[in-house]
Write a structure and sequence with these properties.
Helix content: 25-40%
Order of helices and strands: EEEEHHEEEHEHEHEHEEEEEH
Distance between the termini: 32 Å
Number of strands: 15
Strand order of the largest sheet: 1-2-3-5-4-8-9-10-13-12-11
Radius of gyration: 18 Å
Largest sheet: 11 strands, mixed
Strand content: 25-35%
Number of helices: 7
Shape: globular
Amino acid sequence: MSKYVEMMYYGTSSNVTWQYGENAFTLQRPEGERRFYVYVPKVYTDAHPIGVHFSFHGLGDTCENYGRGVGFSDYAEKMTPSFLYVYPCGYSGLIGTAWHAGTCCEQSTDDVQFVRDMLSFLQSNFHVNTSQIWSSGFSNGAMFSERLACEAADVFSAVASVSGVVCIEPGNSAGLTSCDKAFKRPVNVLQIHGDADPVVPWTGDAILGFPTVPDDMSAWATRNKCGSPSNETLITTDFYQTLYSDCGSNVSMELVRHKGGAHQWPMVTGFETTDYIARFFARSAGYN
């Protein structure tokens, strides 16, 4: 297990103690104390602004298990542009640790404001590049990342959703409409989804309030003022890519369909989800 510095944080204080590598901080929120981790890469100095990559775990997982497991800290160290890697902890409610993404899964917390509070903390203590704020997540965390693209597009320039969809209350097509109403500006969107996912089905789940993946992406294309999607092309065995062209403000949109894929974060020969997301975010910032 990585070593980390743990700090309690209240209000808007700055100049907290931090170290290179993993740090743990706690914010005081109306629902109680909320923990989040910040990985600071060795390339960071106050002299140069750095982006921020928030990544959100799925229902019932822990921030430690997920945040360390997906491995974005390695990319914070080796990729250009580098970034602060933030992996927050969901609220522990009746059904486990979760995010208020909408119909799934925790509905008693204002997690969008929690993210804004974390960003305020980072801006008080690090030299943050506000044009490179990104969000990724898996399952419930992916749904929450998509909610952030709906309701905090003033903050986020790119999001990546793995096995998730927009499910803002009341869910289904009405949830997509709720996103339309909240949406502020074009945002880069990457969706990676297995077409045999039994938890968040490709074909949707009306009872749980999940739209179909094609409907979710079509709604994002409309919000981003994109042209028609490309024909699906093979990336590697069982992974197919659809690109959306001529989007507003030169944003990018991409759907990756995992043929036969279940509810998972694919890390297989020829397609590693962590690497794919990191490179998508880098391209969204103008780096190849």
